[in-house]
Amino acid sequence: MNDSVEIRPRRRKAGRTGCAVEATLSVMGGVWKPVLLFHLLEGKLRFNALCRLTPSATARMITLQLRELEADGIVSRTVFPEVPPKVEYALTDLGLSLAPVLLSMRDWGKQFQELEPA
Amino acid sequence: MNDSVEIRPRRRKAGRTGCAVEATLSVMGGVWKPVLLFHLLEGKLRFNALCRLTPSATARMITLQLRELEADGIVSRTVFPEVPPKVEYALTDLGLSLAPVLLSMRDWGKQFQELEPA
DNA sequence: CGGAATCCCATCCGATACTG
DNA sequence: CAGTATCGGATGGGATTCCG
Hints:
Chains A, B: This is Helix-turn-helix domain-containing protein. Chains A, B: Keywords: DNA-binding, Transcription, Transcription regulation. Chains A, B: Residues 19-117 form the HTH hxlR-type domain. Chains A, B: Pfam families: HxlR. By secondary structure, chain A is mainly alpha-helical. The first copy, chain A, has six helices and three strands. The radius of gyration of chain A is 16 Å and the shape is globular. In chain A, strands 1-3-2 form a three-stranded antiparallel sheet. Helix content of chain A is 48%, strand content 12%. Chain A has helices at 20-28, 33-40, 47-53, 59-71, 93-96, 99-114, and strands spanning 45-46, 75-80, 86-91. Residues 1-13 of chain A have low confidence and may be disordered. In chain A, helix 2 crosses helix 6. Chain A binds a DNA duplex through residues 1, 9, 46-48, 58-61, 63-64, 79, 83-87.
């Protein structure tokens, strides 16, 4: 399956293109990462719980996004060796430091939803 | 060119999927919108100025993103009828209300860049 | 339960050329 | 200067199936 060729795609694309905002986006860019992180603000969650909280994303996408967040040190993944399997995701300290960003996004979204009757 | 068929793609996808964060992302989601908006926080900018401030994006993408932001009432576009042409982009009041989100993103990115020597 | 692998089509987006 | 038009390759991501 693996041709032993480390692909490593466009990761770290905008690590420091000069703009601090791009650095943030290199970590939490994408449509679902902020949503996943926001849900994790309230505490650790199992995989299926995250799926239920994010119905607009497929399980596949949630897996991929979580893997990237894990690789960036934003979330931790704990596997409990039991049957049936149980995996818990939680924010790391670094992930927790994103709280101000996530909360301001939630606040703005709440305001926006109120003035958008559509 | 136009078959008079309003396509209107996946816009308004996550207007109110229940999660306020998704509502915010439906407006400022995407890789370059936050960057463009952040630059506009400091005042109105001409098209080429935005291009210079966002070298990682092509002019084409900047145009498209600005058009979406304009349609969502986040930025305004002012054309000056002179030669050579001159177009200025600025935040609307609604766009300005995104400042807390943009600033917290900048703050986090700055911190992140400092502890990332790479 | 929590994934990984594969298929495969829709779209994104860069490059290029042209315009008022 | 500030775009638009078009093409074509790359990518994204949904659906499905299978596995420990």
